[in-house]
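COURSE: Structural Biology Practicum
ASSIGNMENT: Worksheet 4, Part C
STUDENT ID: 0417
INSTRUCTIONS: Below are two proteins. For each, the amino acid sequence is given first, followed by its structure token string. Answer the questions at the end about the second protein only.

PROTEIN I
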Amino acid sequence: MKLNITNVGKIGSATFEFNGITVIAGNNNTGKSTVGKSLFSLFHRFLNINDAVKRHRYNALIKRIKNLDLKYGDVDDWWKSTDELINKYNLKDIRKFLEDGLDISDARNTLDSIIMFEGPDKEEFYEELLSGLYEVKSISNNRLKEELVTLFFNNIFASQINNVQANVDNAKLELKIKNKPLRVVFKDNQCILAEDSVTLTNKAIYIDDPYAIDIDFKYMLYNQSVGRDYINNILAGLLHTNNSDDVVDKIIASDKYKAIECIIDRVIKGNLIENKRGIFTLQNEDFPDGLSVSNISTGVKSFLIIKKLITDNIISEKDVLIFDEPEIHLHPEWQILYAELLVLIQKYFDLTILLTTHSPFFLRAIEVYSRKYKIEDKCTYYVASVKNKYSVFERINDTAEVYDKMADAFSVLNRINDDIDEFSKCEDI
């Protein structure tokens, strides 16, 4: 799988290959997160996008019929739920009618046979319904896809998709899977092209902030959040997914989890239980009545999220996992454990994993454990930097230069320490 990025965020032009674990190392503010958000947005928005198009078109027509019901329906029955409206007008069959390539000239007869309405204003009802149908069917699928892509990307990128250094040029993303492309183009943060030659069947999960596990699920609001908050809400929604009916897949996931259980148990034991408020509590021998996750350390939350995703069968084979600087909340020893955990879940679930980091401990751990578990041929490394205000990414085979850059901070401290020692000697004289 290959991702091409042009004029997105701080990135002028960059290409990335994914075949297991891809690591992007570099300093802060070098565009690493932009890569992760781009990959996540493409997968998340285009997964089941055709179903989303059908759903929005159907909902638009339902809204118009609801208004007609208020206008021409029974006065004593002026308000109905959507389900009641669907039953009254036989609207389940209208969904297929919307999806068919039916000539609009035949629409009146078809509507008469599907939507049954009797009343003194019958002709007016059908004329207005036909007019609403014209509006809904006149919008092409491509136009709807472009708008759906625009809304989602602007939520993820906080309405700053196009490169701020080259705002006159279009932003472009191209994802190639088995040489089949998926392309989007943005002008002024508005999608003007959405082509999906490949049908995505796997989901992407973006893990940026362990505090996503604390979110009060029943009261989270997707529409009132952007950027990091929006990403966290999506993760929280996944963590609260109920896959209890997928018994076979859950057994398979549980069996695979046994191979990595010992690593997570070295950090924390127990299970996450959702209470009536939609908040997770940790139950184990120490906390038989449950301990709210909000009272658990941030580092432990990182491991619990992975455990929840696996044991509840939320992660499937071939899915995409994106981690934005996962080491931030972890002690160096736990960074090493976390790296081993990620290498193992790639091995057993055949995942595509993208990691961004500026930790030498974490980077080295990925290298060592990928060798230990014999997946080093599935690891790709990039180093990020900024040149002439643009983010630049270089694919590397030797990570030594990355460690040299990460060690610059120690060099600075050593120089300062040497200066202090020299100054102290002068004072003694």
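PROTEIN II
(use this one for the questions)
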Amino acid sequence: MSRRHPIIAVTGSSGAGTTTTGRSFSQIFASEDLRAAMVTGDSFHRYNREQMSRLAAKGQFGERNHFALAANHIDKLEALFYDYGHTGSGQFRHYVHDDDRALIATGYKPGTFTPWKALPADTDLLFYEGLHGGVISDSWDIAQYVDLLIGVVPIVNLEWIQKIRRDTHYRGYSEEAVVKTIINRMDDYVRDIVPQFSHTHVNFQRIPLVDTSNPFVVREVPTEDESLVVIRFREPSSVDFPYLLRMIHDSKVSRHDTLVIPGTKLSLAMDLIMRPMVVDLMAHKPFA
């Protein structure tokens, strides 16, 4: 990690809420007048959408799936974090989503990548959100470069429900195809995604208060007011629990390192918890 060029990473699987968390951080950066270099994990996938589909049709699945380290340019992600921590720069690219109107308007096809290029100059910090921001494996140690690592992870049944609904309603996949994807990803989810949540500084885990025992028949995603959020701190001694309990109505401490809040209070909690951490991180950043 580097206090001179700080790195904040939000890690979690697709559909877990990392993008929503990214928006919360963007609001914090804007109000604190911080210029962040924003990078997403899907831009480090090894294969574009067409390549993955073509490999899947042959039964090869492109190094299995995007959860797997082998299906991603982990070497380039590590290089970016290393370079940014030492120089404040590094190479990145964009993955073109279906709703990326600006990139599509310039001729890029959804499901493809833009060319690699240097990050914008003179940024205050690097912000990453994606699948592998906290990876530690036999070959890689991405977490060592991250100054503030955040995990966003619903309980697995809720994660599956969210994925099934998103991919069937908004991406045009059949429910059978989505369930097959979930099953094919399970080994890599357990091996490459889950261990990251032991390395995070803060975890946000959403838990539904309705029956999700069979996620493959649930038709509606539990709402925020049908959920709780469990927040676990790696260093609870630095957390002002009495302040958070006063500020977040109906919250409680369930363990010495764990705060439980209503699902409707997640945005407020993220601001109350993460803003001081970001401010402290920048306050300890040495002058160049």
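ANSWER KEY EXCERPT:
Q1: The CA atoms of residues 44 and 76 lie 7 Å apart.
Q2: The chain has a mean pLDDT of 90.
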